[in-house]
């Protein structure tokens, strides 16, 4: 499934579904680079329909989180399910990212923080 881009209440959102792996990671990295070209770098990656995630995908998200934070924003994740949630817990990345159950909660967290962490 190809990632779907949109903006929700001023926050860039990318829905990544199916297998989020080395094949899809470069596109996500490029999207995160565009989102962070200028402040505030507020982004959400919605993983509610992702069924798999590999190390290349994790690397893409970590580098995107760093870029967002460098421009005063943050990268939030939402909707982690089943095996994807397990991978985040095993790698302890659920502690590094702000993870929310729903897209609405992730967007609201950005708005409450004013785009800053």
Task: State the gist of this model.
By secondary structure, this protein is an alpha/beta fold.
Describe this entry's structure for a reader.
The structure is a single chain. The protein has a single domain (4-113), classed as Transcription Regulator spoIIAA (2-Layer Sandwich), CATH 3.30.750.24. It is 40% helix and 26% strand. It is built from 4 helices and 7 strands. The strands form 2 sheets. Strands 1-2-4-6-7 form a 5-stranded mixed beta sheet, sandwiched between helices. Strands 3-5 form a two-stranded parallel sheet. Strand 6, helix 3 and strand 7 form a beta-alpha-beta unit.
Reading side by side through the largest sheet, how are the strands ordered?
1-2-4-6-7
- As for the CATH topology, it is Transcription Regulator spoIIAA
SS-derived structural category: alpha/beta
With helices defined by DSSP (H or I, 4 residues minimum), what is the helix count?
Answer: 4
Overall mean pLDDT: 94
Per DSSP E runs of 2 or more residues, the count of β-strands stands at 7
Counted up, domains total 1
What low-confidence regions span 5 or more consecutive residues with pLDDT below 50? none
| Rg on CA atoms, Å | 13 Å
Strand content: 25-35%
Query: What is the N-to-C order of secondary-structure elements (H for helix, E for strand)?
Result: EEEHEEHEHEH
Any idea of the CATH class? Alpha Beta
Amino- and carboxy-terminal Cα gap? 31 Å
Secondary structure elements and their pairing?
Blueprint: E1 4-8, E2 11-15, E3 18-20, H1 25-35, E4 42-46, E5 50-53, H2 55-70, E6 74-78, H3 82-90, E7 98-100, H4 103-113
Parallel strand pairs: 2-4, 3-5, 4-6, 6-7
Antiparallel strand pairs: 1-2
Helix pairs in contact: 1-2
């Amino acid at each position: 499934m190809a990632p779907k881009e949109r903006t929700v209440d001023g926050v860039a959102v990318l829905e990544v579904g199916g297998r989020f792996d080395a094949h899809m990671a470069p596109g996500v990295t490029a999207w995160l680079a565009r989102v962070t070209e200028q402040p505030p770098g507020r982004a959400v990656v919605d993983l509610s329909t992702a069924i798999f995630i590999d190390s290349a995908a994790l690397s893409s998200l970590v580098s995107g989180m760093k870029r967002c934070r460098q421009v005063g924003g943050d990268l939030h994740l939402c909707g982690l399910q089943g095996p994807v949630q397990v991978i985040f817990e095993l790698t302890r990345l659920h502690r590094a990212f702000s993870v929310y159950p729903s897209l609405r909660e992730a967007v609201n967290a950005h708005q409450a923080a004013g785009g800053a962490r």
